[in-house]
Specification:
3 strands; about 70 residues; three-stranded antiparallel sheet; alpha+beta; 3 helices; single chain
């Protein structure tokens, strides 16, 4: 679980440094575990991650930083 937390923190850092626009979790991490997608979705839905919203789910979740 500690490894997942490290990966998740890396993803959060990459989100904060990203320009405005759409992205997927796989744009942030190579081969991310599914659990990180759940954490990201929940944190965005609960407003823990500012200026990011969930856009849609096709094959994967798509998010947008604004």
């Amino acid at each position: 679980m500690n490894h997942y937390k490290t990966l998740y923190n890396q993803a959060l850092n990459k989100i904060s440094n990203r320009p405005v626009g759409k992205f997927e979790l796989k744009d942030l991490l190579d081969d991310p575990p599914c659990l990180l997608g759940v954490w990201l979705y929940k944190d965005i839905a609960n407003k823990k991650i500012k200026n990011v919203k969930w856009i849609m789910k096709t094959d994967v979740n798509v998010y947008e930083k604004y």
